[in-house]
From TrEMBL, chain A:
This enzyme's EC code(s): 7.6.2.8
Matching InterPro entries: AAA+_ATPase, ABC_transporter-like_ATP-bd, ABC_transporter-like_CS, Metal_Ion_Import_ABC, P-loop_NTPase
Protein name: Cobalamin import ATP-binding protein BtuD
Catalytic activity reported: an R-cob(III)alamin(out) + ATP + H2O = an R-cob(III)alamin(in) + ADP + phosphate + H(+)
From TrEMBL, chain B:
UniProt topology in membrane: Multi-pass membrane protein
Gene Ontology terms: biological process: transmembrane transport
Protein name, as recorded: Zinc transport system permease protein
Keywords, ordered alphabetically: Membrane, Transmembrane, Transmembrane helix
InterPro entries, sorted: ABC_BtuC-like (IPR037294), ABC_TroCD (IPR001626)
CDD domains named in the record: TM_ABC_iron-siderophores_like (cd06550)
GO cellular component terms, A-Z: ATP-binding cassette (ABC) transporter complex
The family this protein is said to belong to: Belongs to the ABC-3 integral membrane protein family.
PANTHER family from the UniProt entry: ABC-TRANSPORTER METAL-BINDING PROTEIN, METAL TRANSPORT SYSTEM MEMBRANE PROTEIN TM_0125-RELATED
């Protein structure tokens, strides 16, 4: 929507400073009595490239769901673009990419139809206008998938599929891109290209939040690292994270595998 | 005195109101009968000149559109079983209707009580899944058995006063489709097609990727509720000629066939409707010739068509276009349409990162 950026600019003018894209204050959440995440306070500013790392079961995905408003914190507050995350409904500003590479849904649907869904928050019950379709085709072009537009998504490789899902987020003109372990099951060359794409999108001003357990990918790409294991063990620039011993604390002593994967 | 009169009044009143409401549908039915009568005379097809056949074919054609339409969304969410579960609870609804008719002489068609009971069951299934975060086949199987058990119990309690055979509800019957039930079906047809046409974007998103749909601001639970309610409507509508036991087949078989040959989602919707209509028309014609129950023959035709579709799909993958297109490079710089949107964000970026 072309009206969106100007609206954001107006808000900025009124409030004087940009609101953080994501803000968590003393957030705790548990599916049972035992909390999965606890005492988490952090904020992500517009244009940042943040990676959340932690061992399996550390609450990374739960934290992401809290940030996106899919879960409501037991205590504390989660805000998205300045609104309570749980009631935030301007879905066009969010792009979400999950571990789809391993999904094996046999649904007949083409790449273009998947990318088209990115426009749904903007068109509601209506039809896509020619401008909407132009944005869809443009997004496909950006991720280099134009030639695959008419292919069934189930026939694609993991890497190609993830590109399609990125294109869907682009088509929604998302300001915040949230990726939950996006490269699981994706071949090595595609992973390289994939992080290259994230990098350039971030340079274009999109806020990127990456949930990862592949530490190599994180240290090579993200500007800021949040290391989580129920609580936040480290939150700061990537370079400091590499030198710190936060990793050993969060992952336990046996985890000396910087650059490797689990 | 009034205790005896009230049900009688209620009966005539409710039927009259219903018939007034269904007025336009009766008009449509007349037009349809006129059309088929004309075709029967011109083409010399005797079976089309009977009133029950004309209604049966119309009902069949409507089912051929709405069942695969809803079925497509169900099958691709691995919810094929829900149609079966709702059909069996609809049978309980039929039993409730027959029971009420016998006890207080309510005088409404059991299909209406079936609609109500099936919709309640549909909501119940949906609420269970919202609480437990998953549709599971165990709870579905429980609802299915409960519905059927309730139905048989009610019918046998009432067996003394009731002469109506339940066979037509179990197996369906083309020749007993009354004008009233055909008119009700036309209303259901309108509701279902209208709702799907309106909410197709949201239903597609929820079907394909529920979490992403939630993130994009779609109230997923509401669309799931709409979906199960529509399923209940389809099931009851289709029950008239398909019967409780075979109704789920119309939701599943044409869709399964279509996903073998279709590439896109829109194509699969269209193909599944075409396949369903083929089975309906073929099934009705054959059942008329051999004097069998239409429901069974329609399903057999559907399965036959499905088998052909599978074979066709295999051939298509084997001899079809095998060349893999060149993957383009990732190119974020020369964007023209979307670039304007992000330049605004890029400005505030430097200031924002030094947190």
């Amino acid at each position: 929507m072309s009206s969106q950026p100007s609206a954001t600019a107006d808000e900025t003018a009124v409030s004087g400073a940009r609101e953080p894209v994501i803000e968590l204050r003393d957030v705790a959440f548990g599916y049972t009595a035992t909390p999965v995440v606890e005492d988490v306070s952090l904020s992500v500013q517009n244009g940042e490239y943040v990676a959340v790392v932690g061992p399996n079961g550390s609450g990374k995905s739960t934290l992401m769901q809290l940030m996106l408003g899919l879960l409501e914190p037991d205590t504390g507050a989660a805000r998205l673009f300045g609104e309570p995350a749980h009631s935030f409904d301007d879905g066009g500003r969010l792009g979400y990419v999950a571990q789809h590479a391993s999904a094996s849904k046999e649904m007949p649907i083409t790449v273009r139809e998947v990318v088209k869904m990115g426009r749904f928050p903007h068109v509601g019950f209506g039809r896509l206008s020619s401008r909407d379709w132009a944005i869809v085709d443009d997004a496909l072009d950006t991720v280099g998938m134009s030639a695959f537009a008419g292919r069934r998504i189930t026939q694609l490789s993991g890497g190609q599929r993830q590109r399609a899902f990125i294109a869907r987020a682009l088509a929604s003109e998302a300001e915040l891109l949230v990726l939950d372990e996006p490269t699981v099951g994706v071949d090595v060359e595609s992973v390289q290209a994939f992080y290259g794409l994230l990098e350039s999108l971030n340079e274009r001003g999109i806020t990127v939040l990456l949930i990862e357990h592949d530490l190599g990918a994180v240290t090579d790409n993200a500007d800021r690292v949040v290391c989580l294991n129920r609580e936040v063990y480290f939150d700061g620039p990537t370079a400091e994270f590499v030198e710190s011993d936060a990793l050993a604390h969060a992952f336990g002593t046996a985890a000396n595998f910087l650059g490797g994967s689990e | 005195m009034t205790g005896v009169l009230a049900p009688v009044l209620l009966q005539s009143q409710s039927n009259e109101t219903l018939d007034t409401l269904l007025g336009p549908m009766y008009w449509l039915l007349e037009q349809w009968a006129g059309l088929l009568g004309w075709v029967a005379r011109e083409a010399g097809i005797g079976m089309l000149s009977y009133g029950f056949m004309q209604r049966g074919i119309l009902v069949g054609l409507c089912i051929g559109v709405m069942a695969p339409l809803i079925g497509t969304f169900l099958v691709h969410r691995q919810l094929a079983l829900i149609g079966d579960a709702l059909a069996h609870t609809a049978f309980a609804g039929v039993a409730v209707g027959l029971f009420l008719n016998a006890v207080i002489d309510l005088g409404v068609t059991p299909y209406l009580t079936a609609v109500v009971v099936a919709m309640i069951a549909a909501l119940f299934i949906e609420l269970i899944s919202e609480v437990t975060d998953a549709y599971n086949d165990v709870s579905m199987a429980i609802v299915l058995s409960t519905g059927f058990a309730l139905g048989t119990t009610l019918i046998t309690i009432n067996a003394g006063g009731m002469t109506v055979s339940v066979e037509q509800y179990l197996f369906g019957n083309l020749s007993t489709v009354t004008s009233q039930s055909a008119a009700i079906l036309l209303v259901l047809f309108g509701i279902i097609v209208g709702m799907v046409a309106l909410t197709r974007n949201q239903l597609l998103y929820v079907t394909f990727d529920e979490t992403a749909a939630r993130v994009s601001g779609i109230p997923v639970n509401w669309y799931n509720r709409i979906m199960v309610m529509l399923t209940a409507l389809v099931v009851v509508g289709a029950m008239q000629i398909m019967g409780v036991i075979l109704v789920a087949a119309m939701l599943v078989v044409p869709v399964a066939g279509a996903s073998q040959v279709a590439r896109s989602f829109n194509e699969s919707l269209l193909v599944s409707i075409v396949l369903a209509e083929l089975s309906v028309l073929l099934g009705i014609a054959i059942s008329y010739q051999i004097g069998a129950t239409a429901g069974g023959v329609i399903v057999l035709c559907g399965v036959g068509i499905y088998t052909v579709a599978v074979a066709f799909g295999k051939l298509k993958t084997k001899y079809g276009d095998q060349e893999v297109p060149e993957m383009g490079s990732i190119d974020v710089t020369d964007d023209d349409t979307t670039a304007t949107v992000w330049t605004d964000e890029a400005d505030g970026r430097d200031a924002a990162t030094d947190d």
